[in-house]
């Protein structure tokens, strides 16, 4: 008898049983409420996300722009994989694919005002990366300037 | 039993066939996309033959051309990068003086590649020794290991680099043999700039190339050949 | 006014020690903060603000880091003598030795890592592994050492694991030999430099580690005894100081042999003259700092009749540590200052320091980073000794 604790004894009394049922039903109700709230929040998030995808909340200078590799939505999601793959191919194997080289990206996407993808807050790379809070160190080494413009400037 | 086996087999066959048909265009497209550029191969070994007899004492044109091509400041402080430098040497006992350019010797067995912990230092198939700055962590072990003191460490943040020559703070760099020019079929900047045509650039593996023919006929030496590194840069008249 | 009872006195001293402990922690923390500030500045401005340059590529941070790493391996000697060779007085000290090893390894590696040109990319060192690089081997050796010593400590401090202490001790014993070999190989593999590229270096570093580790152990052990108001039994001190003396003699032998072999190779004579006779600062540091302060003085303090008391051993150990730093300065910086022989037999000059002795003026930032490494080791030790039982517990002394 000593082995049974006070609590386990109480749990078998009829009153305690009723109390327990009441508690369970309350708990179920609460869980239902939580689920409803979660569904609401999730739909809200989805709606706002799709809204955000359509309208960028920041100003973006896309330079000459245009589409040469894939559509913008695909590029937004995957440009880093392309760049990284191409970087290894180029550096180690000397494969210089003109189309997906960083230089080629910059050639079209550098601002028409200052020939750069990084010079201003709304420059092509800066604006989006700042908004997404993704820090890149590409331009510590790579030039962010359109090559044709750089060559013109350094012709002398 | 056999029937089932046969059925299974034919099913596998057809599905494989369908899969192949489905994938093939993709593969072809992939090929087309990469079509005009292919990886460098070990059939080529780029090298140089430097004629020290022609190299003028006090002439610095190769250094200037290198600095301009690769966007180096040209500063001479111990923290400034120098990819190529002129060395004046004088035989201690005989007294003969020679002037010559010294840069990365693009060894066949480069010590910098052996010691690099991350594989950032590497040798391209065509014999050019490079630093992959995406992998370089800036430990400077390669600088300790290089017998030619050919490497420099970027001590300061850089701005406005040449779009063809990415360089940046905290990484080690050295002569790339103007790899960006070689890949366009051009000569390294120093070879082009030499007023006396003392720097002969070419493919050591091609017996008909000018450099290979000249190496066969004139006496040339590799610097510190005792180390057995087989540099791609050779010197004539040393 | 009542006279304070003994328990009251004890309480007061305990309170004082509590305060002192937090004061020490704060001091160590401050030094670490200063080191992090130096790292931040080097990140911001590049290595230009350090004294290092394209001729002297490794500087003061490497002196501190290599000292800490070599001593971390050497201090395990105490543990090995206990666990592998079964000597009771060393066995009682094995946990403390293990702790010191982990602490110093952590300090040394932090310095090494934060001195990188791109410390933000340190993860690349784990993802991209060059099998031929002795640096890459060392990454494995260091992390292996951490885990092995941690397991070793666990087998000693958890009673149910005690049966495993001996195998763990053996593993640590073997590992630390390989680790210090690896440290020596970093220099031994530099074939082109006159100062390095010698097969003498790995064994030399192993013997040096014995002396440096023992010296650090003495310093820490004495401090802990004082802190706990205990007195180390003179017989134990006697044995351990004699061992330190023997290690110092052995390390002198190794260093002498290294220089002797170099003197015998005609192409290395120039370097030996530079480092031992003509090199200005470097010979002075070598003879006065390393030989006299780091070896002669400790040997006198240990073996001269009438000396060899606790205080003498403390001073001797401190001198060994200082001598170690001086030795590494001469070895690492002096070794790079001597010009590479690219054209043997020629007089050489260029704009890139060819044929010239390179100059090096260490900056404050480098020292801040180095001392931060020491402070990390200090903090790890201080906190661990306080929260866990690392105090050596000696049975009544029996010579074994």
Give a written overview of the molecule.
The complex is a heterotrimer of chains A (156), B (238) and C (400). Chain A is mainly alpha-helical and 156 residues long. Chain A folds into two domains: 6-54; 72-153, no CATH class. Chain A has helices spanning 6-11, 14-54, 72-93, 102-109, 124-132, 138-141, 147-153. Chain A is elongated, with a radius of gyration of 29 Å. Chain B folds into two domains: 1-38; 46-236, Alpha-Beta Plaits (2-Layer Sandwich). In chain B, the strands form four sheets. In chain B, strands 8-1-10-9 form a four-stranded mixed beta sheet. A two-stranded antiparallel ribbon of chain B has the order 2-3. Chain C has one domain (30-387): Formate dehydrogenase/DMSO reductase fold. Chain C has 14 helices and one strand, in the order αααααααααααααβα. Chain C has helices at residues 6-45, 60-74, 76-83, 88-91, 94-114, 124-127, 134-157, 165-188, 201-227, 234-264, 266-278, 281-303, 310-337, 364-387, and one strand at residues 346-350. In chain C, 50% of the residues are buried. Chains in contact: A-B, B-C. At the B-C interface, strand 2, helix 3, helix 4 and strand 6 of B face helix 7 and strand 1 of C.
Q: What are its keywords?
A:
heterotrimer, A: 156 residues, mainly alpha, 2 domains, disordered N terminus, C: 400 residues, Formate dehydrogenase/DMSO reductase fold
What is shown here, in short?
The complex is a heterotrimer of chains A (156), B (238) and C (400). Chain A is mostly helical and 156 residues long.
